[in-house]
Amino acid sequence: MKTMDVQSEVSTRLKIYLLFFVVLLVGTMTYFVIRQNSDLGTIYAATDDVTVVRPHSFLPQTNVDTTSVAP
Fold first, then answer.
1. How many domains does the chain contain in total?
2. Residue 26 lies in a domain
């Protein structure tokens, strides 16, 4: 009967450690995802500000020869 109690205690401790590890892992991943989304939002906001201030900077540069006549 004594070995049964020891095995039960070991499995309970193992479950607690695994649960703690999973909670820590999920919390860390959630933190990094939220932080990355925040950084991406900052980057997109800065890009939008540059587009509003200098809209011509994102247009392709084309050299059009207006002196020739199209056939």
1. 1
2. yes
